[in-house]
Amino acid sequence: MSSSYGKNIKLTIFGQSHSKGIGMTLEGIPAGKKIDFEKLDRFMERRAPGRNAFSTTRKEADKPEFLSGVVGDTTCGTPIAAVIMNTNTRSQDYDILKDIPRPGHADYTGFIRYGENRDYTGGGHFSGRLTAPMCIAGGIVLQLLEEKGIRICTRIASIGGVKDEGDLTAYCLGGGIDTKADDAGTVMGDGENKESFHIDIVNPGAEGDFPTISEESGRKMQELIAEKKAEGDSVGGIVECAIFGVPAGIGDPMFDGIENKLAQIIFGIPAVKGLEFGNGFEAAGLTGSQNNDAFCLENGQVKTRTNNCGGILGGISDGMPITFRVAFKPTPSIAKEQDSINLSTMQEAKLVVPGRHDPCIVPRAVPVVEAAAALALYDIINA
Question: I need a surface site. Which of 20, 274, 299, 339 has the fewest CB within 10 A?
Answer without folding.
Answer: 299
